[in-house]
Amino acid sequence: MTIALIIYFLLAFVLMGRLLLYGVRPTKTLAWLLAIFTIPVGGMLFYFILGRNRRKNKFYTLKKTESIIKYLNMVDAYYETIDSDSNIPTAIKDHIKLVKLIIKGSNFVPTVGNDIMPLKNGASTFEAIFKALETAKTFIHIQYYIFEEGVLAEKFKSILIRKAKEGVEVRLLYDALGSRTLSKKYINSLKTEGIQVFGFLPMRLGRFLSSINYRNHRKIVIIDGVYGFTGGINVADKYISGDPNLGNWYDMHLQLKGTIVNSLQSVFAMDWSFASGSDNLLNTKYFIKPSTVGKSVAQLVAGGPDSDFHSIQQLYFSIINSSKKYVYITNPYIIPGEALKEAMQVAALSGIDIRLLLSKKSDSLLVKWTVRSIFEDLLESGVKIYLYPEGFLHSKIIVSDDELTTIGTANLDIRSFEQNYEVNVLIYDKKLTTQLKHDFLNDCKKSKPIDYLNYIKRPKTERLKEGIAKVFSPVL
After folding, report:
1. Which of 33, 71, 90, 432 is the most exposed place for a label (fewest CB within 10 A)?
2. Are the beta carbons of 70 and 107 closer than 8 angstroms?
3. Are 293 and 176 contained in the same domain?
4. Based on the domain organization, do 252 and 160 belong to the same domain?
5. Does any domain span residue 58?
6. Catalytic residue set
7. H or E segment at 413?
């Protein structure tokens, strides 16, 4: 027993040293130190699962991959000339600081001449995806956090197998935890037809504790470099038939055409390299030549637990901080952390119209009460909050000042900012932003606004639930 205690405390002091050397935030470091020294075994176990700083121990050791991606996107050359280039579109000039922030933080330059179509529910999303898949001649790349067997998965399998037999290269990447119900039978039925399939961070015993908390939350479909799809919608039948408990799922996806698809292909190539161990996608044949197919300017923002910066958090912060008229946010999981919460409060107190739209229902009680724990502070500063009454609103959208829209996979919480691999599209397009602003305001009319004076009178039992849930907000 004495030897076991000595070993435990020696290990605890080693972990304390790592926290002091590599801890990100003092409050988080202190919380982990208290957990390790006051909760025998459990505190240390939770630290191994949830607490390690992946920016100091990167998953991606293949720096060659990142270097090639930067070269393919001409990142360094673009950054050096952007201020002096007279051909830069007005949409980029008007938001030059935001553009440069994303280039530095995420290694993607803005692209012009794109055609971007919002897909406002599961039915329209999968109709568009299946229609695009039928056009495939060269390659199909698919990546999902949740790939769940059912009607949609069978439709995918039918098309993918047929296309593979026609000589199309087909690759499928799924998150091993999010798609944990995906059967070996289904996977093998694809592999036997020549389709390449890999799981991202598979749940293996030796890596279980080090990887379970770091998931790939991206949703990506690319066809021949011509069509790209990304957004919040997974492959699950609830997106077309509803959920027995929550009702209809409302979500937003994007169909992309144009040079922005190259940026999306770059993200897939990096994830594929990590999961498969192969750099074969870092080849110009998978990237189309710049072309003009529409009028939208768009820039990709990707982030993960091994990124140098919290690029998506910085994107959200910058949009709020630089807004002049309004910022309208739709997101199911609003647990912003102190910096973003302060940004929203400062903007609202300054007269900016800050509105949050989220579901009245939640798919997690813990998340529900954690989200509600910040309502009082936000409402007091003038932030308007609306609860959408129908089904489950799962969209991740921000629109601002009739000029900027971001849609993607990232929630407004610490998990998406620091622990998940995510991807968002930032669109510099007045017409699209204005259209989505009107959709947002119409949804607000259907929703219940939360009144500050009534909210502060809520029962103490609700305050207690919020307090308990808030403790877990850093790991949600």
Report:
1. 90
2. yes
3. yes
4. yes
5. no
6. 217, 219, 224, 394, 396, 401
7. strand 412-413
Distance (Å, whole) CA 234 – CA 394: 11
366 and 238 part of one domain: no
Phi and psi, residue 376, nearest 5°: -60, -45
**pLDDT score at 61:** 46
Stretch 291-296: mean pLDDT: 93
Instruction: Say yes or no to pLDDT of 9 above 70.
Output: no
Residues 45 and 69 in one domain: no
Residue with more model confidence, 77 or 291: 291
Q: Is 215 exposed, middle or buried (0-12, 13-18, 19+ CB in 10 A)?
A: buried
Residue 42 has pLDDT above 70, yes or no: no
CA distance 379 to 453: 9
Neighbour-count burial of 289, counting CB atoms closer than 10 A to its CB (0-12 exposed, 13-18 middle, 19+ buried): exposed
The Cβ of residue 381 has, within 10 Å, a number of other Cβ atoms equal to 18
* Total tally of structural domains belonging to the chain: 3
Q: Are residues 292 and 316 in the same domain?
A: no
Instruction: Specify the residue for token string 């790349």.
Output: 141
Average pLDDT over residues 379-402: 96
Which of residues 169 and 45 earns the better pLDDT score? 169
Find tokens 């075994």 and name the residue.
Answer: 41
Same domain, 134 and 12: no
- In terms of domains, do 171 and 318 share one? no
304 part of a folded domain: no
Domain hosting 373: range is: 311-475
This prediction has a pTM of 0.88
| CATH number for 256 | 3.30.870.10
> Given a cut of 90, is residue 38 above it in pLDDT?
no
Cα R_g (the chain), whole angstroms: 23
Contacts of 175 (CB under 8 A, 6+ apart): 144, 145, 146, 199, 200, 201, 215, 216, 217
* Mean pLDDT across the chain: 87
Query: Which position has the higher pLDDT, 226 or 281?
Result: 226
